[in-house]
Amino acid sequence: MESAERLLRNLGFSTYEARAIVALARKHPANGEVGKLAGIPSSKVYSVLEGLKNGGFIVAESVGATIRYESVPIGEIAAKLRSAHDGAVETLEAEFSRIAPLSALELSWNVPDYTSVIDRMRRVLSEARSSAMLSIWPEEVAAIYSDIEAALARSIRVVVASFGPAEGLAPRR
Fold first, then answer.
1. CA-CA distance, 64 to 160, in Å (whole number)?
2. For site-directed labelling of 118, which of 43, 89, 103, 146 has its Cα 20 to 30 A away?
């Protein structure tokens, strides 16, 4: 029954609530003895049972001076949990749909080969909205020179840090 308790805790029940539900599934109806069956301290058992009753997971019946507790059928518990969690998931989806994603800021990449490096630099330049910074070798400057020029023509601020003399690129202000 430990796995049933763990599953109930994963669904939001406290340890004592999960233990009480499992104990009442084993022996019902039961009075305060459920605390002993579930390993719940006597100082906590009635507040745990009251919380479960208020949540609709158990029912309480007065028999003379004694209150007897019984778990509602597992199908009802499952339906209640499914409804609560489905609603929470729907609310979560709605909340996430309202969150505006931040622009993807990638400071460095791992690329498999030279062609991919060139393709990535070309994409950075073509997708840039205000500026682009490239840290490259002179050979790459030559390979993407037309892409740099196209970005500059779109008023994109292009900063090139070259690991050697970059022929043909003059500083622009």
1. 87
2. 103
CATH class of the structural domain 2-98 = mainly alpha
State which amino acid sits at residue 12.
G
CA dist., res. 51 & res. 43, Å (int): 14
State CA 131 to chain mean position distance. 32
Do the beta carbons of residue 125 and residue 132 sit within 8 Å?
A: yes
Global pTM reads: 0.52
Residue for token pair 């745990």: 48
Convert the chain into a string of H (helix), E (strand) and C (coil): CHHHHHHHHHCCCCHHHHHHHHHHHHCCCECCCHHHHHCCCHHHHHHHHHHHHHCCCEEEEEECCEEEEEECCHHHHHHHHHHHHHHHHHHHHHHHHHCCCCCCCCCCCCCCCHHHHHHHHHHHHHHCCCEEEEEECHHHHHHCHHHHHHHHHCCCEEEEEECCCCCCCCCCC
Kindly report, as residue ranges, where domains of CATH 1.10.10.10 are found in the chain.
2-98
